[in-house]
Amino acid sequence: MAEAIHKKLQSELEKYQQLQKDVSKSMSLRQKLEAQLTENNIVKEELALLDCQNTVYKLIGPVLVKQDLDEAKATVSKRLEYINGEIQRYETLLKEMERKSEQHREVLSSLQQEYQRAQGQAVGKV
Amino acid sequence: MVNRCCIVGCNSATHNRPLKKNGLTCHCFPAWRRDHGDQVRKKVENDYESLQDRLRTLPDKLSYDIMVPFGPLAFMPGKLVHTNELTVLLGDNWFAKCSAKQADALVEHRKKHVKNTLDDLQKVMKNFQNRADFTDDLEKLTGDTGDFADIREEVINEEEVTKGKPRLALKPNSKPKQEYLLELEEDKEKKEGDEERTTGVLSEEELWARLDELERQEELQDERYRLDSTDTNGEDTTSSSEEEKEADGGSDVQVNGHQKENGWVPSSITSQMNGTNGSHPEDEEEEDCNEEAGNGLPTIYFSHTAEFKKVRINTGKNTTLKFSERNEQKAQAKRKKKSGKSNGHSPHESYKITSPADIYRVFVDLVNGEPIPRKSILKSRSRENSVCSDTSESSTADFEERRAAFGRSWSHDDATHSDTSDGITEEESPTGTSPRTNGRFEAFTGTVIEKDPLPCSIPHLTIAPPALPTIPERKLEEVGPEAPQEPPKRMSKFKATRLHQK
């Protein structure tokens, strides 16, 4: 009996740990997205400072490709929107994972109690 | 030079997350890292400053002769041309070709951005700092350091603390009075009622109200005042009040009130040994302050030590309580005056007067150097423990203890009062002297008082009680001002009052 509980406990523990890792991964991704968001904001502002005479280049791999100022502005705006959307997605994902991990935590604690009780009984029996 | 993690075995330079390495766990942000963000931003700002300088000077010449870095280890002479054409990285792999001045504007814009971030960071840091400071302050406030002190008074008997007002939280079982309940069946109910009293600041009006209550109580609780104790000044009062039972039913409340008065009085005395004026309300206030001060933090434990003699004044009918309360006040005043004059007995001992009977106990005439209780006008039952003058040896014994506790001078006052009251009761029931001796008071009759020259010093009635409707009070008033006079005069006054009453 105690053994079975022990095994169950182990499996639950592993699941919980996995969930925790997922949470932290999502968290770091989200932070990266945040950084990109700030950067693109700056780019947008600086593009606004330039006039048509300046040529704008985009670095694609090792190549600097000439871009139109307006085009560049549009691209940057689109990228900004995309980043915002990604952040939202990650937010919801994170919340969901948090909730799941909470559930797992509860299950784990109850299992642990059961295990201890079983162990106590086993000791008593012995 | 890059700062690295302080933990031996971990060479990480970042540590913005819990890191497990070689069995070690490094946690977020060591001290150097905490300020890191701030430093980084400062560095960035400085870099931009120097960049701006460079941009301003660059277009000065068409071309510069420079040493061009050629790999990591070599330089070679070269020329810097097109000094006004700059390719600026806008971020996220975007570049723009612009002039030096435009680049300057871009740099300026970036600098502004960095500064904003820096300011936000500062604000956040300040917020956290404030929170930390607040916590520290709170800790100091609640800790043992600082200017705040917690004054605690261990109240064993709840009754002591409560005054006048019924306290619902009090439990009837918490009082040591229970034992007295056995002695006096009638008192039981009243005692339970007593316990319901709540502590409150007794204003003058409340005092008088309490007096009323006490008077009613007195007749019911003759035996209580004897109890002592430390644990209950209140108990003493209740017993004393019990002794003097009266038919009135409102004694429940009164007992408490009585006790509370006593409770207040001793505490006031203990707290103010040197006696400021002994007005009762003042004492109460002070006690209140003491109690109220108990919310602070370094704890001062404060306990009532004085136990007052209870003086019973049995009017036989009514308003004994007022009488006693006034006497209590007077006694207090006297105590304050005579704190230095007592026989070496602490003036606070048995000083609590919570019932008229207490007064008899407290104020004992000194005849020829010996305390003789005065004639008590209280009912005989209430005189068991009273200090009223009595021919019986038991009363003398009682006197001894009370005197020891109380001090002679006060006893005089008591005797005076008791004399007066006795005189009154005598008139009312001239034959009732002997029955009265059975009570708390050591039976003493008015007769003795009249004959008694009262050589003892006249009690000082420092408190001139306000006019009260009860006869004894009136008499007290009369006696009060007269009390400080020489004994022989007092004799005459007693007679005078008696004659007056007749």
TrEMBL record, chain A:
Q: What are the record's GO terms for cellular component?
A: cytoplasm; prefoldin complex
InterPro entries for the chain: PFD_beta-like, Prefoldin
Keyword annotations for this protein?
Chaperone, Coiled coil
Identify a single GO molecular function assigned to this protein: unfolded protein binding
| Pfam families documented for this protein | Prefoldin_2
CDD domains, per the entry? Prefoldin_6 (cd23161)
Q: Name one GO biological process term.
A: chaperone-mediated protein complex assembly
Residue runs in coiled coils: 2-36, 80-121
Instruction: Spell out the family assignment given in the record's similarity comment.
Output: Belongs to the prefoldin subunit beta family.
**Could you describe the subunit structure of this protein?**
Heterohexamer of two PFD-alpha type and four PFD-beta type subunits. Component of the PAQosome complex which is responsible for the biogenesis of several protein complexes and which consists of R2TP complex members RUVBL1, RUVBL2, RPAP3 and PIH1D1, URI complex members PFDN2, PFDN6, PDRG1, UXT and URI1 as well as ASDURF, POLR2E and DNAAF10/WDR92.
Task: State its role.
Answer: Binds specifically to cytosolic chaperonin (c-CPN) and transfers target proteins to it. Binds to nascent polypeptide chain and promotes folding in an environment in which there are many competing pathways for nonnative proteins.
What this protein is called in its record is: Prefoldin subunit 6
Lineage here is: Eukaryota, Metazoa, Chordata, Craniata, Vertebrata
TrEMBL record, chain B:
Xref: PANTHER family: RNA POLYMERASE II SUBUNIT 5-MEDIATING PROTEIN NNX3, UNCONVENTIONAL PREFOLDIN RPB5 INTERACTOR 1
Q: Where is the composition biased (Basic residues)?
A: 490-502
Report biased composition (Low complexity) as residue ranges.
230-240
The record ties this protein, via InterPro entries, to: Prefoldin, Prefoldin_subunit_alpha, RNA_pol_II_subunit5-mediator
| Span list, region Disordered | 184-204, 219-300, 313-354, 373-446, 460-502
Report the record's Gene Ontology biological process terms: negative regulation of transcription by RNA polymerase II
Q: Where is this chain's protein located in or outside the cell?
A: Cell projection, Dendrite; Cytoplasm; Mitochondrion; Nucleus
**What GO cellular component entries does it have?**
dendrite; mitochondrion; nucleus
What's the protein name?
A: Protein phosphatase 1 regulatory subunit 19
- Whether Phosphoprotein counts among this entry's keywords is yes
Species this chain originates from: Cyprinus carpio carpio
Q: What is its main location?
A: other
- Keywords (A to Z) from UniProt: Cell projection, Cytoplasm, Mitochondrion, Nucleus, Phosphoprotein, Protein phosphatase inhibitor, Repressor, Transcription, Transcription regulation
Q: Which family does it belong to?
A: Belongs to the RNA polymerase II subunit 5-mediating protein family.
Keyword Transmembrane appears in the UniProt entry: no
